[in-house]
Design brief:
This protein has a single domain, classed as Ribosomal protein L7/L12, C-terminal domain/Adaptor protein ClpS (Ribosomal Protein L30, Chain: A), CATH 3.30.1390. Helix content is about 45%, strand content about 20%. The protein contains 3 helices and 3 strands, in the order E-H-H-E-H-E. It is rod-shaped. Binds to the N-terminal domain of the chaperone ClpA. GO terms for molecular function: peptidase activity.
Length: about 100
């Protein structure tokens, strides 16, 4: 009688990896009015009045402050739009993006 060899079928599951996250950072400057920074934070990042004020004060005292964490595309878009809002009013407001560790 012939010998039958059975091999188990293997299913490969594709591994889905979470997208890398990026921090949007507010860089302090001595020229942009605090009220304007709070307005930009509320408008672009949907922060409450209190949250926006705390982020602005932290950036003012420490030099920089992480505003929020997003995927790369979203972080770059929000940082660019917020920086452009400052430029449109003639302020040197600056938001940068860097990878989260």
């Amino acid at each position: 009688m012939p010998e039958t060899v059975l091999k188990p079928r293997t299913k490969t599951q594709p591994k889905t990896e979470r997208p890398k996250l990026y921090k949007v950072i507010l860089v302090n400057d001595d020229f942009t009015p605090r009220e304007f920074v709070v307005t930009v934070l509320k408008g672009e990042f949907k922060l409450s009045e209190d949250q926006a004020h705390r982020v602005m004060i932290t950036a003012h005292t420490r030099g920089v402050c992480v505003v929020a964490v997003f995927t790369k595309d979203v972080a770059e878009t929000k940082a660019t739009r917020a920086t452009d809002a400052g430029k449109a009013k003639g302020y040197p407001l600056l938001f940068t993006v860097e990878p989260e560790e």
